[in-house]
Every structure is written in structure tokens, then in C-alpha cells.
Amino acid sequence: MEFARIKNRFIAMVFTRFPSLARSAAGKVPPLKFDQSPWAPFTKPLASARIGLVTTAGVHLKSDKPFDMADSTGDPTFRVIPSNAMAGDMMITHDYYDHSDADKDINIVFPLERLRELAAEGVIGGVTERYFSFMGHIDENHFPRFLEEQLPQVAAMLLEDGADAVLVTPG
Amino acid sequence: MGISIERKFTEQVRPSRAVFLKWPYGHPLGEAGATRQHRVVLTEAFKALVTIEKPGQIIDLPFRWKREKYE
User: Fold this and answer.
1) Which of A37, A48, A113, A130 counts the most CB atoms within 10 A of its CB?
2) How far apart, in whole angstroms, are the C-alpha atoms of residue A21 and residue A156?
3) What pLDDT, in 10s, does the model give residues A79-125?
4) Is A138 helix (H, G, I), strand (E, B) or coil?
5) C-alpha distance from A2 to closest chain B C-alpha (Å)
């Protein structure tokens, strides 16, 4: 593994152990900013609602193309994960947070088994056929592609799959 | 609805609804293997989906990292 990736992973481990350092560093990253919150009233009973899942934790199928760790400014693309995938079918490619615990139990960043359980118990009505994953390290140069191309594609597919609400999880 | 572990970013991105946990990166649902903990977080997120009426509201969840029992 190249030196830059080893360095990023080491920093990610330090940040997980010392969250205040992580928050201080995160404050220096130019973030996406919006003036308003999007809004749609949620009127359906939860027990009949179909829930989608989107993560920025860098999860993807082992058989899928990993996120680009060679570009130090990030990767704005997304991966599709069938909601009936097994935990063992997935892996994480994301050098900017320590995912050693998530490697042991993917549900702590991408709760697909928990959602499946809640659907089986009737707490939620069901889940969408497809889930979606980004790798949350995306610098400003990638914002246009992320916002104007990739996110709208994900939103369209969630609508196509009949999502009533979407759970978004970070890494 | 979003689960946030970095409140500052969430305030800037302004998702329609969010719950915030002051937990370490890589652990928005909690600890590996802690099924009950994951379910508590999901339950709170779904509660927020139903109860939040003001766009952009973030609910601070009271759970302390590794100092709670989930039974």
C-alpha cells in the first residue's frame, strides 16, 4: 500500500481514538453548505412506509469497483447495494475514518440487517430494493459532479423504488 | 432522516431531519455486535422522522459513548 494511504489510515485511527482532534480537523475542511432544509411532510404510518438507506461510509459490494483512494480530493461517485445483500458480501473502501469496527459489523455504519429485522417485525413497512453508498471524502472540485449528476441519480432511483423515507448514515 | 456524529457539518448541510450522537467517527449506530444499541438509535431516528415538524431540526440524543446499558 502506498505511503499516502497508510498515512491517511493512521490519522483516521488517531481521530477515532481522540474525537476532539477529529472535530478540530473537520472544522478546517470546506463543507457543503445550504441555506435551507429540504422538506416533505411524512404522513404515512411508519409500519407501512418503505425505507431507503444511503451511507457516506464507503461501503460497497466486494464484487464492485472500490472508491478511488488515489485521488486525494476524493471520489463523488456512488455504488448500488441490493438491500438483500449479506453482510459478508460487502467491504469498505474509505481511508478517512477508522472502519476497523465496521469491518467486523457493517451494521454500525450501514444497518441493513437491523432494517431487515425491523421490516420483518412490522415496525417499518419494508425496505427499498436498492441501497446506495458514497465515500464521504469529497472535496470542492468534485462538488459539481456530486450535486448535479450523482445525487440526482440516487434520488431518482430511490423514487423509482418507492421510498417513503430515506435513512442517511455517515462513516 | 440523518444520523449525525458531526453536528457542525449537519448544521451546515441542513438535512430535513436528523438525530445527533456525540460518538466517534465510524460508529453512528454504535459498537460492533451491539444489536440492541443499533436498534435504539434506529428507533430514535424513526421517532424523529415522525415527530420533527420544523425543517432542519436536529435532535440531540442523550446516549453517552460506552456509558449506557441498552436492555
Assistant:
1) A130
2) 37
3) 999 999 999 999 999 999 999 999 999 999 999 999 999 999 999 99
4) strand
5) 23
CA distance A117 to A123: 9
Quickly count: other Cβ atoms within 10 Å of residue B62's Cβ.
Answer: 8
Q: What percent of chain A has pLDDT over 70?
A: 89
Q: Provide the pLDDT for residue B71.
A: 79
Q: Which residue has the cell 459498537?
A: B31
Q: What contacts A134, CB < 8 A, 6 or more positions away? A: A54, A55, A56, A58, A76, A77, A78, A146, A150
Interface of B with A (CB under 8 A): 1-6, 8-9, 12-16, 22, 24-35, 38-39, 42, 45-46, 49-50, 55-56
pLDDT digit string (tens) for B41-62? 999 999 999 999 999 999 999 9
User: Could you tell me the residue ranges of all domains in chain B?
Assistant: 2-60
The answer to whether the complex's ipTM is over 0.90 is yes
Of B25, B49, B50, the CB nearest to A171: B25
Burial (CB count <10 Å: 0-12, 13-18, 19+), residue A141 = exposed
**Rounded Cα gap, residues B50 and A143, in angstroms:** 31
Q: Which of A96, A66, A90, A70 is nearest to A170 (CA)?
A: A96
Residues belonging to chain B: 71
Nearest CB partner across the interface for A109, out of B4, B29, B39 = B29
Residue in chain B lying closest to A95 (CA): B26
Task: Find the angle CA(B59)-CA(B65)-CA(B71) to the nearest 5 degrees.
Answer: 85
